[in-house]
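Table S2 (text version). Query chain:
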Amino acid sequence: MKIFLPLLLLLFTTNIFAQTLNSIKFEGMVHISETVALRMLSFEKGDDVDIKMVDDAIKKYFKQGYFNDIWAELDDGDLTFFFKEKAIISKIELEGWKDNDEEVQDAVIQIKKGSLYDDKILQDAKKRIIEAISQEGKLDSVVEIKTEYLENGSIKVTFVVNEGEEIIIDKLEFSGVNGLDPDDFDAVIANKEHDFMGWFWGQNDGKMSLADLAYDNLRIRDLYMQYGYLDAKINEPFVRVNFNHYTADMSYQIKEGNVYTIEKITLSQAREVVDEKLLRDIISLKEGEVFNIKSFREDAERIKTLIADKSYAFVQVVPDLKKNKEKKTVEVVFKITPGDRVKIRNVVISGNTRTLDRIIRRELYLGPGDMYSLTDLKDSRNSLGRLGYFEGTTIEEKRVNNQTMDLVVKLKEAPTGNVQLGGGYGSFGGLLVSIGVNDRNIWGSGINVGVKAEKSQTTESYSFNVSNNRLNDSDFSGNFSIYTSTFDYNDYSVSSDGASIGAGHRFSRYVTGYLGYGFSSNAYKFDDTLDLNVTDTFYFEDYTKSGITISVKWDDTDDFYLPRQGLDISQSFEKTGLGAQANYMKSRTSFGKYMGLEEYIGFDAIFRYKARLNVLINNGYIPLAEKFYMGGIGSVRGYQAFSLSPVITDDGGVVRRIGGEKTFSNSIEMSIPLIPKAKMRMVVFLDWGFIGDESITDISRGGYGAGLEWFSPVGPIQLMFASPLNVNDGNTQGQEDKVSSFEFTMGQRF
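Corresponding structure-token output:
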């Protein structure tokens, strides 16, 4: 009876408040349409409803996440829902860490403008910020969330960050190391012991990277496996942090195990598609040698490439190791499943808003109907990169079925038409400025057209050129140029007017040749201070030049402006004397090696080595202006352009530069990302060069420094700050060197 009475009272009360609906209205609701809101109700107009049914409807609306508050009024059959919607976040800011970095907002904060304000979402973002900072090795970071209502009713959210302290590794120990040198571990691990003067270039700063902490033991194990220690066990490091000084001691426990030699190499093909001898020829591992996990992986990749080049696009190469612990030997097994041969069904090109499709397709080594080749695919990607027309180039493989695939070429156009600026400043020559209008891909046609003007205290030149690397989409190229220039010395100047024409041919994917003809008329103008009675006028005779140039070039780099792999080698010979006064043979050799280091050191660093060798052979008459000079970008930075040269002293005691017949210069560079989002990199460099007549080592100069490489919206820009080495102050060799601490160029390859 005690239970029945309350139930009866509740049923009576509910029935009292039940009403027949005459209307349903919504006030203050924006994010849900009235039609959708009515569909979400379990009742409709004309039904009998009670308080519980209305309460259930309110709960269902609230679960949608759009509202801070919802209530309802039921008056004489008229039901009205009232909504107080959450505010919209219209602005998100970061202060104190990665200030207003959009990439961080996308990756870490993960809140988009226009999102509804939700305290839980903000707290989750706060946790992610703290976690991201901790991955940089900083602990005890604090993040405060500030909100501000704007005039339009939206909310501005600011994450105010107080970064924590970096942990410095004071001591790093390795226990159980006998077969390897612990110092070798520094080359593979990210968390290293702090060196004395750790802030200096090349020293370890000792900053802890929590993101790498879980992988460093695996990197050490991989190094052991490169020396045959297949049983090596490296535990995760034990870390003890001193929070008073934010320093840490770390230690690794290592069990090296035994060194394994290769007993046998087995190739297991599910279906033989390549002769086993061909496969064994490309395998670097040898029976009887110590096992090397790095060579093992490279061999697997070479096998995959060889088979994929025979159209087996979906080949799988699964390496396996069968250890014999008693004999301390290992059987290396490559399990090969080739799949079916694959044909290209279609090649789809996207993203080329300017460049014509045919300009892109002629650089591809795979087309509709062709059999798949992995090497052809890689070479196609690199060939597009060498054009210099695109910022990014990817070729996606889309599997249609086991025998067919589509290739999707995705491109992002780069600015090829630009106003080129360049220049420099030296203590002697003053300011040099060059300006040009150039388009390497005019109207998207692949044709290069340029007009350039250069002016300084010592030079003035104007030129026009047009070239087409693929005449009528063939393997032939053509070019034409015309120019006029004046070069001022201290008391004389050389004026030149000339033109050239030539044709080239692509002999293979990487090798091109060129044959051209050029003619120029050159005249000297003398200053009033030049006394021809005491000056050897042999060096200052007007002359004409007529000659042919033949050259060959190898280029398998992956990008025009910023290559990360490959070689760029060229050799040219110029022979003059064809009906003109100048008569000589000129040889120019250039070499460039580019190597991306990301897979070795974990970030996008690029190593470059560049060298240039020039030799001049006298066949009758070498004019002064045709000899070689050094200095500036392209040879030895830290000196004014073309300022380094052998000299003579005339009868009046005046020292004059006369150029050299032999010159060699080389550069070592390291380019590292500075602000990736802005496509800005920093480069450090060391240049050294030699120039002379009888001996190439008559003059030896160097330079070092740092610079900025920037892919700006108007084209690639280089800003170089250099200091000279081995400077001649005028006490030797009779003439003071002309140094230059700053130079800049635009539009050139890095």
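Notes on Table S2: Confidence is low (pLDDT under 50) at residues 1-16, 424-430. The CA atoms of residues 647 and 656 lie 5 Å apart.
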